[in-house]
Amino acid sequence: MVKNIDTFKKEKIAAGKDTFMQVLISADDAPNFAMRRFTIEPGGSMPMHTNLVEHEQLVLNGRAKVIIGGKEFEVKKDDVVFIPAGAPHNYKTIGNEAFQFLCLVPNKEDKIELVEE
Amino acid sequence: MVKNIDTFKKEKIAAGKDTFMQVLISADDAPNFAMRRFTIEPGGSMPMHTNLVEHEQLVLNGRAKVIIGGKEFEVKKDDVVFIPAGAPHNYKTIGNEAFQFLCLVPNKEDKIELVEE
C-alpha cells in the first residue's frame, strides 16, 4: 500500500479542542500496531489524559507545549516523543501553525481517561 | 522522552548502498514496536529483500522507486507505505535529495534475506 497522507479521512476528536485524527494504517490493515496522524489547529489542545497503551510519536509540523508524567516540554517538528502506557499527558499548540504528529499505538485494548489538571 | 531526530546515531546498513539507519525508539525503549529512520543518500539503494516482519512507513523527504511484492511505485514525502511481512521489496533513490523514511517494525524476530532481482 502506498497512499498520500493528505488523502486519509479526518475525524474530529471529541475530547480535544480543534483536534483531528487520520488513521493511516489501521488495526485491520496491519497485525501489530496502528499509525495515525493527529492535527491540532492553532489555538487547539488535548486535555490531560491517560491511555492503557504507549504512544510512539514524531512531530511533523508546528509546535506545542506538552506535559508528560508531570514534566513539561516544548516540542516541535522532528522531535521524537515516547509516552509510556498510563502516563498522563496533554497538548497545547504554540504559535500560528497547525501542530501535527504521527502517533503509533499497539493493536491492544485502549481506554482514554481524562485527568484533573 | 522527547529528543530531536537529528541527534540519534546513524549506523551504516551493510546490505544497502549509501544507506543509514537511526534507531529512534528501540525494542528496549518500548514494549511492542520500534521506530527507526532510514536515510538513503542520492544515488543510493537497498537491494530486493524480504523480512519476517511487516514495515509501517512514512516518507519524510525525497523520492524513490520502490518495488513491493512485484508492483512498482514512485514514492515521495508524505506517502504512507505498508509492506506486509514476507513481501519482497527494494528502494532506489530518484533525484538529488536524500530519501528519508520512518520505518516501524514489531519487537519480533526478524531475518533479512536478499532476493534475486
Give the name of the CATH superfamily of the domain at 55-107 in chain A: Jelly Rolls
Estimated helix fraction of chain A: under 10%
Largest beta sheet of chain A, briefly?
10 strands, antiparallel
Task: Give a count of the beta strands of chain A, DSSP E runs of length 2 or more.
Answer: 11
User: Which architecture name of the domain at 55-107 in chain A does CATH use?
Assistant: Sandwich
The assigned structural class of chain A equals mainly beta
Mass-distribution shape of chain A: globular
Which blocks of ≥5 consecutive residues of chain A have pLDDT under 50?
none
Strand residue content of chain A: over 45%
Given the structure, what is the number of helices of chain A? 0
- Under CATH at level 1, the class of the domain at 55-107 in chain A stands as Mainly Beta
Order of helices and strands of chain A: EEEEEEEEEEE
C-alpha end-to-end distance of chain A: 41 Å
The biggest chain-chain interface is: A-B, 32 and 32 residues
CATH topology of the domain at 55-107 in chain A: Jelly Rolls
Q: What's the overall average pLDDT of chain A, rounded?
A: 97
Describe the oligomeric state of these chains in a short phrase.
homodimer
* Rg of Cα set of chain A: 13 Å
Description:
2 copies of one chain form a homodimer. Chain A is mainly beta. The first copy, chain A, has a domain at 55-107: Jelly Rolls (Sandwich), CATH 2.60.120. In chain A, 0% of the residues lie in helices and 62% in strands. Chain A is built from no helices and 11 strands. Chain A has strands spanning 2-4, 11-12, 17-25, 33-50, 55-61, 63-68, 71-76, 79-83, 89-94, 99-106, 113-114. In chain A, strands 2, 3, 4, 5, 6, 7, 8, 9, 10 and 11 form a 10-stranded antiparallel sheet that branches. Chain A is globular, with a radius of gyration of 13 Å. The mean pLDDT of chain A is 97. The interface between A and B is medium-sized, with 32 and 32 residues. Strand 8 (79-83) of chain A pairs antiparallel with strand 1 of chain B.
